[in-house]
Write a structure and sequence with these properties.
Pre-mRNA cleavage complex 2 protein Pcf11, phosphoprotein, mRNA binding, Serine Threonine Protein Phosphatase 5, Tetratricopeptide repeat, coiled coil
Length: 203
Amino acid sequence: MSEPTPAEPGIPGAREDACRDYQSSLEDLTFNSKPHINMLTILAEENLPFAKEIFSLIEAQTAKAPSSEKLPVMYLMDSSVKNVGREYLITFTTNLVATFICVFEKVDENTRKRLFKLRSTWDEIFPLKKLYALDVRVNLLDPAWPIKPLPPNVNTPSIHVNPKFLNKSPEEPSTPGTVVTSPSISTPPMVPDIQKNLTQEQL
C-alpha cells in the first residue's frame, strides 16, 4: 500500500483530499501494527492544518470499529499526541474521557489491562484533573480500576467550601496552597462545624 501524499493547505479541496486519504489509511488499521501507526502519525503531522478534522476521523473510528480493532486506534491517538502534540494534544484532551470510555466499555478484560498500561503513561501528557476524571468514570464501570489521587497542589472538584476563602482577611492576600487567618477571628470558622458534626455523630 502506497503512503498517501500530504495535502497542501492552500490548494482548493485540500481539506477533503487530506481527510479522504487519512480515512482510507485509518480503515486499514485493523490490528496493532506499529509501522502503520507510525505512518498515520507522520501523515497526521504533515496535515497539521487539518488536525481537528483528522481528530474527528480518529474519534469516529474508535466508536465504529469492532471491539477487536479499538485498541490500535487508541494507540494511534496516543502516538499522535506524544509525537506531534500541538493541535492534536488540545483536541484529544477535550474529549479524552468520552473517547476512552467509548473504547473501554466495549472491549474484553485483556484489552482493558492494555488500556490501563496506556493510561499509566499519560501523567506527563494530559492535565491531571482530566486524568482524575477519567479514572473516576472508568472506576464506575470497573471497580478494580484504581483512581490515582491528585497531588495536594491540584484542587479536586468538591462540594465543600475551601476554608482559605472563609478565613481570608481582606487586607492580607493569600498565596496558593496556604490558609490565611484573620486576627479578628479567634477560631477558624470551619472548626465549630467539624466539632458540631462530631458531637452529633457521638450522640
